[in-house]
Design a protein that fits this description.
By secondary structure, the protein is an alpha/beta fold. It folds into 2 domains: 7-232, Aldolase class I (TIM Barrel, Alpha-Beta Barrel), CATH 3.20.20; 244-314, Up-down Bundle (Four Helix Bundle (Hemerythrin (Met), subunit A)), CATH 1.20.120. The chain is built from 16 helices and 7 strands. The protein has a 7-stranded parallel β-sheet with strand order 1-2-3-4-5-6-7. Helix 4 packs parallel to helix 6, helix 6 packs parallel to helix 7 (133-145) and helix 13 (244-259) runs antiparallel to helix 16 (301-314). The two termini are 35 Å apart. Catalyzes the synthesis of 5,6-dihydrouridine (D), a modified base found in the D-loop of most tRNAs, via the reduction of the C5-C6 double bond in target uridines. Specifically modifies U20 and U20a in tRNAs.
Length: 322
């Protein structure tokens, strides 16, 4: 989710769900090693709970990143060994590390020594032709022995050559049974399923078998699917979900604060595009955000204008901002 789940995105999602664990973009441990912590780690306290996701292959750098996760108020630190992009491979991190389970174990152990936070791993079920279940078992055994506190598994293998990152999310078949089998073999290890989950009904159906479900791009493009998560997943049945327009107006206040500091409004409005996904007027809403944000000097009033445009399109009476 690089360039997607930035602080602005996480703030918006937190207005929709209070309990869902959010993840940062994958942060290169090397960048933190060279003193760029504020750029990559600064967020808003209201985003919590948030896991800091790190990429790297150097034990000292990852230990440093794990220590910074504690200092900057994160709730978990996650090592990504599932990303298949060429840019990530060139830095010797991401999915290519699944070929080196001993090294990944050393990385987890170094992170475990550096923080009291949960240290987790995000992986695939395999890479290239190394995709038999025995290899996956060996990989998981190595990180468990190193002190891993949890594993999130994208239930597809990754092809490191020949497929783009987008194709790697679509072409290799989903093999949920392999993730389920891991729970039998490692019952004490919290295991979270990732890949192809697009609605809460499907997510909830896995919770009797596994310990959690990760929803990635679908939650970005259609964030309102998380509105019922607090009630359905976390048992807060007495807490009504927020209203979409109330979320948009609360986010507007956040945008206004940062816009006054010189941050372009499009850095924020791009995350709002899917807020009315599936409802009448959603296309008008998206267009108004896009066109309004493109105007020189545009500010948070773009959100008000987009709300008004959607109201006109569907014949609704605008809700007072007061």
């Amino acid at each position: 989710m690089m360039d997607w789940t930035d602080p602005a995105c996480r703030y918006l999602l937190r207005l929709i769900t209070r309990r869902t664990l959010l993840y940062t973009e994958m942060v290169p441990a090397q960048a933190l090693w060279y003193g760029r912590a504020e750029r990559f780690l600064k967020g808003h306290p209201a985003e919590a709970p948030v896991a800091l996701q790190l990429g790297g292959s150097d034990p000292a750098q990852l230990a440093h990143g794990a220590a910074l996760a504690s200092e900057w108020g994160y709730d978990e630190v996650n090592l990504n060994v599932g990303c298949p992009s060429d840019r990530v491979q060139s830095g010797r991190f991401g999915a290519c590390l699944m070929r080196e389970p001993q090294l990944v174990g050393e990385l987890v152990a170094a992170m475990r020594e550096a923080t009291q936070l949960p240290v987790t791993v995000k992986s695939r079920i395999g890479v290239d032709d190394m995709d038999d279940y025995a290899a996956l078992q060996g990989f998981v055994a190595a990180i468990v022995a190193a002190g891993c506190d949890g594993l999130t598994v994208h239930a597809r293998k990754a092809w490191l050559q020949g497929l783009s990152p987008k194709q790697n999310r679509e072409v290799p078949p989903l093999r949920y049974a392999r993730v389920s089998a891991l729970k039998d073999d490692f019952p004490a290890l919290p295991i979270v399923l990732n890949g192809g989950i697009r609605d809460l009904d499907t997510a909830v159906s896995w919770l009797d078998r596994l310990d959690g479900v990760m929803i990635g791009r679908e939650a970005y493009h259609n964030p309102w699917l998380l509105a019922a998560a607090d009630a359905r997943v976390f048992g807060e049945a007495g807490t009504p979900p927020p209203e979409r327009e109330a979320v948009a107006r609360a986010y507007r206040d956040y945008v206004a604060r940062h816009w006054r500091e010189g941050v372009p409004v499009t850095r924020f409005t791009r995350h709002l595009s899917g807020l009315f996904q599936g409802l009448p007027g959603a296309r008008i809403w998206r267009r108004a955000l896009s066109e309004g944000g493109a105007v020189t000097g545009a500010g948070p009033e773009v959100i008000d204008q987009a709300l008004a445009a959607r109201h006109r399109a569907v014949g609704e009476t605008p809700v007072s901002a007061g």
